[in-house]
Amino acid sequence: MAVIEVADLTKTYGGHTALDGVSFTVEDGEIFGLLGPNGAGKTTTVECVEGLRRADSGTVRVLGLDPVRQGRELRRRIGVQLQRAHLPDTLRVREALDLYASFYPSPRNLGELLAEWGLEDQREVMFGKLSGGQKQRLFIALALVGDPRVVFLDELTTGLDPQARRAIWELVRQLRDGGVTVVLVSHFMDEVAALCDRAAILDRGRIVAEGTPGELIYGSGAHSALSFRTIEELDLSALAELSSVTRVERCAETVVVSGTGSVIDEVTALLARNRIVVSNLRIHERSLDDAYVAITGRGR
Ligand SMILES: Nc1ncnc2c1ncn2[C@@H]1O[C@H](COP(=O)(O)OP(=O)(O)OP(=O)(O)O)[C@@H](O)[C@H]1O
What we know:
It comes from Streptantibioticus rubrisoli. This is ABC transporter ATP-binding protein. Residues 4-229 form the ABC transporter domain. It is a peripheral membrane protein. Keywords: Antibiotic resistance, ATP-binding, Nucleotide-binding, Transport. This protein is α/β, with parallel strands linked by helices and 300 residues long. It is built from 11 helices and 13 strands. Strands 5-6-7-3-8-9 form a 6-stranded mixed sheet, with helices on both faces. A 4-stranded antiparallel sheet has the order 11-12-10-13. The protein has a 3-stranded antiparallel sheet with strand order 2-1-4, covered by helices on one side. Strand 8 and strand 9 (206-211) form a beta hairpin. Helix 8 packs across helix 11. The chain starts with a strand and ends with a helix. Adenosine-5'-triphosphate (ATP) is lined by residues 13, 16, 18, 36, 38-44.
């Protein structure tokens, strides 16, 4: 069941087209990533979905509600982690949660929320004294105070060390496993690959690709390569004829094969079929980063 349905959304600012027919759906209980270069239209899209901005045309439904006409009702059922949210340095964790809880008719139990997000020991600590990871966990906990069915997370782990990032990813997975649908706006391909069930890539106001991280990688045309050494007779033309292979090079005993799609599977199967013994087999698998560059035609 789709909890978010966006169809043909357009938005212009002055003469500038920010959204040019954006359509996508987010299914119940998934982590959905919205990716794209700076200025692609991610914030505009998400804020139209949240009812914070009004699109020029197109339709949005979130949990069956129209975010513009039924915005008040909708905002009770969703949670939003603001991109550069900031709280006064002297506000204590408990006070921040109490304040946010006062906005909702039936807020979560705050003790439970603190325990879930590993903030029990920080209960009486002032915001300004929290570490980056603790601040981020607090922002997410604040987005969850109203017990939302759908939560929007933006720049989830910017500026955090690898351990803190992984800890937050695990908590977001637990959130999803508990039935909350998560929309994640991110610039980080590793984050999307690690966390998202599906993602859409937005570029210049249009969705240019959509699918699971695996589908995005394999559908992108990004290249993989493998290299190996062999002293055996090897028919390079047989390799070059494989449908996924785009290039074969041999330099002395080293062979380098590049290609798209299932090139690695096809090449290793051919080597096995012909009983070619190889050594130093190295694989350069394309990543979501490679796919992103191939799809949007540029780096971040
Ligand atoms: N309030 C506004 N007034 C005028 N132009 C705007 C406004 N908000 C966004 N834009 C323009 O619309 C385009 C899309 O912006 P948006 O903030 O949605 O992109 P984004 O993908 O979220 O970018 P970033 O990753 O940098 O946050 C950009 O060209 C931006 O300059």
